[in-house]
Amino acid sequence: MSCEPAGAVGRALAHVASVSSGPPLDRALRVTLNFHPDRITAGQGVLERLAADGRYLSQFVTGTSNGGLTAYPGGDRWRWEHRIFAGAYDDADPADRPVYGALNFRARSVGGAQRFGSAHLRLTAETLDRTTFCFPDSTFEPGTFGVASRMGLIGLADAAEHDLLDDYIEAQVHGPVRIDRDVEALVLDPCYRDGPIEQAARKLVCSIEWHRGFRLSVEEMRHHAGYRGPEFVELGAAIATGGVLDPKIISEAANSGRYDLQAIKRVWHLLARFGGPDQDRRSDS
């Protein structure tokens, strides 16, 4: 790095580096931030907020998440950050806290952690130097960590037997993630072509790309009733259009206010697990 980060960011990075080991990270790899691009919070869409803010913000600011909502003083996310970052962010402004994504070490077209959404921001190589990593997900209180200069987590992930939706190395990006500086591309599902989501995406100052898409028939979904439970298969069948689910259909159900969001999340898990283009957990091919 040309200069060392200061303040809370510098302290957090230094502490994680001190407990990390392994070879340097391949600079061709990228961190991705997966999310649902058409979810609405407080009357505003995710992409509209990204365009207005010019940066990607943590759940400590937005109050939203595609995982657990525990980003408040004393919550699980707060306590985890206190532990792993040695208290560096305890008194920090919420906007200064890290944002969460995944290292896309398997080069999947849908990003490094598809369980969190059909779209992703692919970050630049420069952001790797202010990113910390853990395996498994921080929800599981991991004890193994990495930074760009000491990254032994890929071997651990390769050796682990995980479901596709759990097969990722969590990344915490420290410092502002600006759309105009830190994002190589916004990558979207093709179900959003030629509609309001593409129009909103075009207002962002970054490139727009498309992956091959998530799509799952109700017939195929019924073969996987044991994955999240038969009640979520039935919910998926109820909201499907023409016997098919895609990300747009699921978000329309989530935004309607008619369904429990945790239940909708499990329908998304079914689509993400069995209807995506990257079904082999180890590769995109």
UniProtKB/TrEMBL annotation:
Q: Which domain of life is it from?
A: Bacteria
Pfam families per UniProt: DUF3626 (PF12294)
InterPro entries the UniProt entry points to: DUF3626
The protein here is known as DUF3626 domain-containing protein
